[in-house]
TrEMBL record:
<dbReference type="Pfam" id="PF01966">
    <property type="entry name" value="HD"/>
</dbReference>
<feature type="domain" description="HD-GYP">
    <location>
        <begin position="372"/>
        <end position="593"/>
    </location>
</feature>
<dbReference type="InterPro" id="IPR003607">
    <property type="entry name" value="HD/PDEase_dom"/>
</dbReference>
<protein>
    <submittedName>
        <fullName>HD domain-containing protein</fullName>
    </submittedName>
</protein>
<dbReference type="InterPro" id="IPR006674">
    <property type="entry name" value="HD_domain"/>
</dbReference>
<dbReference type="InterPro" id="IPR037522">
    <property type="entry name" value="HD_GYP_dom"/>
</dbReference>
Length: 608
């Protein structure tokens, strides 16, 4: 096929498949009938499997065409595919990277600065997104380098003919100023340097002659003037030089147009508080009163403005409470007045309403509550509602793991109570019998919590439209540490730390991940083995959720467990399952027809 026709076909079919996948996912959330819902789930599985196979074939063909020698027309055809995927939110980085690796050297050698600023901006954006998911410094470091690469092309500004390409330079400045302004690691001097540079550059004769009256450019400069206010994060520990610059910025701020919920309000409060211009109580009363007075969002009408106000008030309140209040009791004096309302707002945000953005909002809210809530049950309930339940794929898998592990444990406790001695203050067989319900409750919760870390890499976990790249596999392997990082300072969850960190480590400790986790030394090793086997049972037999694989029947799976018994899997658990026919049958039923019932229960809960 002609390369131009193929690239057009590739772009259209890849994007069509993406939209189709979104449609079949969203269809599941509009069905109440169990029979219709099950039909829709089976249809979704078949369609997604078809998409997976089609996309794999398209990608292999693309790789063949990438061997062709480039000229201006062919390079432009590749570039246009890249640009349309990015601008239509089909920015599938491993696929885009294949194209970038081909055309970037060509545009570098031909000094096409306009194309280069767009390509480097795409690279920077994708790595900044990876940082947002994982918190790993290597991603933000690389994103920063690429944004700086975009900025470097300002030396060729007049040679970049398209204003949509020239604006990338100002967007790059904005994307350096806002995130780095919020960091507390001594980057604020650098942020102010970028701020001075971009304003000076925009006001230069060169830029003014070309774009000074362009509303799009003016809008971005105004956004940068708002972004610089993010340097207020951690300003109380900054150097005197940085504080002085911050005070000057606030006192001479040119865009005082937001109200109590805006960046300027928060920055001015901090500047005035640090200089002793206003009292702590006056600020706290003001912001707390405004949260109390706001109505709850009505999702049947137009919730955007009300929800945005509440979220902004909340963000400012938490930030200022942390700065102003010297003790937990001091902070709670204000938080107690608004906490129930804030929890209600966050837990009632419907799935499907700006899903990814609201997932991030709920995750951040849970982190804010981390040091405030004291009741373990409240914390666990909110962890499930704010994070796990908002990720349907991970939540359903976690429910299945809980159910499988609980079924096995119920029978093992009766015949082999000695396996459960050790953790949870269980010191004897008598303790096991007396605390049976506590043990089962712990196992149920362990199944629910084991994969919480996947909620921070959702787009990779849910990737079912093609084979995962090696880098994506590496990111998947970070999910135990991501989950542990979120709760490791909360000793109320200490009994789950090893489960979260070690459920992918092999029974013999010689395989799996993370490598540094020593399962043999963990007092929870038996419980980890139980969750590991339950995890494997669900993943291997799932034909409704993991559509990139056809799924195995339980008999085939069990033979694999037997084969790797003693190395990957606990031989005592594997043998126990095989020796007990009724248990074997229960697990076989649950991982086949019984799975749909668990799925429907989960989706109904998500839609509440």
């Amino acid at each position: 096929m002609d390369i131009f026709k193929f690239l057009e076909k590739f772009k259209n079919e890849y994007m069509k498949n993406r939209n189709l996948q979104i449609d079949v996912e969203e269809a599941l959330f509009s069905i109440d009938s169990f029979d219709k819902w099950k039909e829709s789930l089976i249809k979704r599985s078949k369609i997604t499997r078809k998409i997976y196979l089609e996309n794999e074939e398209l990608i292999e063909k693309l790789k063949e065409y990438l061997n062709i020698e480039l000229n201006e027309d062919i390079a432009l055809a590749f570039y246009n595919v890249l640009l349309e995927m990015y601008e239509n939110e089909c920015d599938d980085y491993p696929v885009m990277k294949l194209i970038i690796d081909k055309i970037l050297p060509y545009y570098t050698n031909t000094n096409n600065y306009g194309k280069l600023v767009k390509i480097y901006h795409m690279l920077a954006f994708e790595y900044y997104e990876a940082f947002g998911r994982t918190g790993e410094a290597k991603y933000i470091k690389q994103a920063c380098e690429w944004y700086k690469k975009v900025i470097s092309y300002k030396d060729y500004y007049s040679e970049i003919k398209d204003s949509d390409e020239r604006i990338q330079i100002f967007i790059a400045y904005s994307n350096l100023i806002a995130p780095f302004g919020q960091m507390k690691d001594g980057t604020k001097d650098m942020v102010f340097d970028y701020y001075d540079q971009v304003l000076e550059f925009f006001n230069s004769k060169l830029v003014q002659d070309l774009d000074g009256k362009n509303e799009y450019f003016i809008k971005h400069i105004e956004q940068i003037k708002r972004d610089i206010l993010y340097v207020d994060e951690g300003i109380e520990t900054a150097t005197d030089k940085v504080k002085s610059r911050f005070y000057d910025l606030v006192d001479n701020y040119p865009l005082v147009e937001d109200d109590l919920e805006g960046n300027y309000f928060r920055a001015k409060c901090k500047a005035d508080l640090l200089r002793g211009i206003v009292s702590k109580d006056s600020i706290m009363e003001k912001i707390t009163n405004n949260i109390e007075s706001l109505p709850l969002p009505n999702y049947d009408s137009d919730p955007d403005d009300t929800l945005l106000l509440i979220l902004n008030y909340h963000n400012n309140a938490i930030d200022l409470y942390d700065l102003i209040c010297n003790s937990a009791s001091d902070k709670n004096k204000y938080l107690d007045r608004v906490l129930d309302k804030l929890i209600k707002v966050h837990t009632q945000i419907p799935y499907g309403f700006y899903t990814q953005m609201m997932n991030n909002v709920c995750q951040e809210f849970y982190r804010d509550l981390h040091g405030i809530l004291t009741d373990y049950k409240d914390k666990k309930s909110l962890l499930l509602k704010l994070i796990l339940v908002r990720q349907p794929t991970t939540y359903i898998h976690s429910l299945m793991v809980s159910e499988i592990a609980s079924i096995i444990a119920k029978e093992m406790i009766e015949e082999n109570p000695e396996f459960f001695i050790g953790p949870l203050n269980i010191n004897s067989i008598e303790d096991v019998k007396n605390k049976k319900e506590d043990i089962l409750s712990y196992i149920l919760n362990a199944g629910l919590l084991h994969d919480v870390g996947k909620c921070f890499i959702v787009d990779i976990v849910n990737r079912q439209n093609r084979r995962l790249s090696s880098e994506e596999f590496s990111l998947i392997k970070t999910h135990p540490s991501l989950g542990l990082k979120m709760i490791e300072e909360d000793m109320d969850f200490k009994d789950y730390f090893d489960i979260m960190d070690g459920h992918h480590k092999w029974y013999n400790d010689l395989g799996g991940y993370p490598l540094e986790f020593n399962k043999k030394e963990s007092p929870y090793s038996f419980y980890i083995d139980l969750i590991t086997i339950a995890d494997c049972m669900d993943a291997a037999t799932d034909i409704l959720g993991r559509n990139y694989t056809s799924g195995k029947n339980f008999d085939t799976l069990y033979q694999e467990l037997v084969k790797e018994s003693g190395t990957r899997y606990n031989p005592k658990i594997v043998k126990f399952i095989g020796d007990h026919k009724s248990l074997y049958q229960k697990l076989s039923d649950l991982t086949s027809d019984g799975r749909a019932n668990i799925y429907f229960k989960a989706y109904q809960e998500i839609l509440k």
